[in-house]
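Reading a protein record of the kind used here takes only a little practice. The integers have meaning only within a learned vocabulary of local backbone shapes. With that in mind, consider the following protein and its fold in token form:
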Amino acid sequence: MSMPFYVSPEQLMKDRADYARKGIARGRSVVVLAYEDGIAFATENPSRALHKVSEIYDRIAFAAVGKYNEFENLRVAGVRYADLRGYSYDRRDVNARGLANAYAQTLGTVFTTESKPLEVEIVVAEVGEDAATDQIYRLSYDGSVADERGFVVMGGQAERLREEVAGAWVPDMPLADVLALAVRVLGAPADGADEDDRRVIPAAQLEVAVLDRTRPRRAFRRLSGVVLEDLLGSAAAPDLP
């Protein structure tokens, strides 16, 4: 009788984590930035149908990188969770923290019990009455949750792009300026490439949305076409380190 092949738990978890990280890094980055009237989301995405950024509830949005079918299933589950909670209790009882906890349980369970982890990284954001009450949660493939302040970069060259954003972002920036910063960062050259290789991404290749605290009920709004072009055209050039 042959003995089963043994893999230590530490090695198994490491292999799963490496597998998930490689899958996430292959995707295009998503940048989430707080601005003076809310929270902005931007990513390079030429598709008009397959969204990486979506509305979950009145003042809550969802952004993701990784395998589309996996994070789309999570988005749909989040919408159902929010609708059911809002219907059963009160719309004010639906918040980003509760949704982030539900996602963390799902991601953590899949990571530890299934043979393949979910190749996704997601952000759940909620716009508050003012900047101090905004909530941005980043969830990793293993269910870990980070309470972020100001900005998040996921997918692709996330670490390097995060450094660029950190050097240029300041609180209460106008929407046009944060979008210009996001687009410039998304067009960053690959590691080791020259700065002259930085791409200028046209508005038609971008997926951009905002949670606008000035809107009365549904804060989520997509920006595209002439509106997006005007915002990008009116922005001051961001100062990157």
In short: The chain has six helices and ten strands. The two ends are 63 Å apart (CA to CA). The first strand starts at residue 30 and ends at 35. The mean pLDDT is 91.
